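User: Sequence recovery, please. Input:
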């Protein structure tokens, strides 16, 4: 069922863009994330969707943006809205851009992967992170799978145990800056903010 996610978002890309809206309920977290980045730094958003509202918020703050998403339609919207930035159609499970970034985002995207694939993402995060880079992502608050419904189809979510996320961060060179396991402003998701440990 997780493999159905890509097709589901592609088939319903315009509906997702409309339903997502432009309310930036993540703003306080994005402010904290941006505060860890150098002025004009480069960011990669892994699962960027249509670029609204997260990419717009950070682009308007002067950051250089690269977005990757599996939906060609959503990436097309990004290219139309922000033509001066880089937008790539791709599967996050095979992320290999060959360069490093000051900031990495996986907002409401990592949790669509299986537990096995989530574990494999952390070395990919590390390989795309500059010294001191910041990483922000969301997850569930306990280990397990949940199947929701969207557009009349099953929608897969999975989470590792919070202690395992902490372990994966440490093992891949990140130190935890802040976390909130049930953030009411973010749909009760767990929010993680970390940065590369330069010790």
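Assistant: Recovered sequence (199 residues):
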């Amino acid at each position: 069922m997780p493999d159905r996610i890509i097709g589901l978002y592609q088939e319903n890309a315009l509906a997702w863009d409309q339903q997502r809206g432009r309310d930036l309920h993540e703003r306080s977290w994005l402010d904290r994330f941006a505060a860890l980045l150098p002025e004009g730094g480069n960011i990669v958003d892994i699962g960027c969707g249509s670029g609204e509202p997260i990419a717009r918020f950070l682009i308007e703050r002067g950051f250089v943006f690269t977005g990757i998403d599996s939906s060609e339609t959503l990436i097309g919207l990004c290219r139309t809205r922000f033509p001066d930035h880089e937008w790539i159609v791709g599967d996050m499970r095979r992320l290999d851009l060959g360069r490093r970034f000051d900031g990495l985002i996986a907002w409401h995207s990592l949790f669509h992967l299986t537990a096995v694939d989530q574990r494999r993402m952390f070395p990919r995060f590390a390989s795309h992170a500059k010294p001191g880079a910041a990483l922000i992502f969301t997850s569930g608050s306990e280990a397990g799978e949940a199947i929701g419904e969207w557009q009349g189809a099953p929608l897969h979510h999975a989470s590792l145990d919070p202690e395992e996320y902490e372990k994966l961060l440490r093992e891949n060179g990140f130190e935890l800056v802040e976390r909130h396991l049930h953030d009411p402003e973010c749909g009760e998701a767990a929010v993680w903010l970390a940065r590369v440990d330069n010790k």
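The longest helix spans residues 115-127.
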